[in-house]
């Protein structure tokens, strides 16, 4: 945050190109089919036009957060009319289509689920590694996830323009559906004694990475078919999540690249 001469606080991390404001411009953006990442609405605001904005947002599964007016004022001093929409820097994919495409090609899906990864730079770095390694897609939750802004695309070195990213309302139910489709759910966590190099990543796999603060949430841990950890030999207790994701992804790729001895 930075303080202006008039004493007002402004968030210098916000890029004006990443958001639009005002009820009618946002309505026009929805009707034009533009990708909207999330909506911030003044919690005191009411009216028919606002109801239309909210209805469209819900129809398109755009997360809505009700906030005090001063939160909106910190983003812009212009006439936002109580509504700010963050524009999506990418078009989201259907994870079902991604998995189906893999099976149709005779490939074993390798899908990465990110549980509450909120740092844009970490997310971008993970996406870059995933795309380079040939991961088939990333799944993130609508809420408690890094915003996929122009900064995220830049950090990913453009990988987010090529890597399918799916945004879902609830990771728990999505993970259950992935299991029904035959994917083995592998959670990377410190809460196990099993080494990551002991896991079998050649099967259809959903790889779960958790937040740096507290790892994978308990409800998602309950759905994992197996748990693995990355060996820590030094004095520092853990790796940055983007580095940990890279280690896990490339172990999966290494296993999938080993020639079949029977061939």
From TrEMBL:
Residues 19-93 form the RNA 2-O ribose methyltransferase substrate binding domain. InterPro entries: Alpha/beta_knot_MTases, Ribosomal_eL30-like_sf, rRNA_MeTrfase_TrmH, SpoU_MeTrfase, SpoU_subst-bd, tRNA_m1G_MTases_N. The keyword Transferase applies. Keywords: Methyltransferase, Transferase. SUPFAM superfamilies: alpha/beta knot, L30e-like. This is 23S rRNA (Guanosine(2251)-2'-O)-methyltransferase RlmB. It comes from Cyclobacterium jeungdonense. The gene is rlmB.
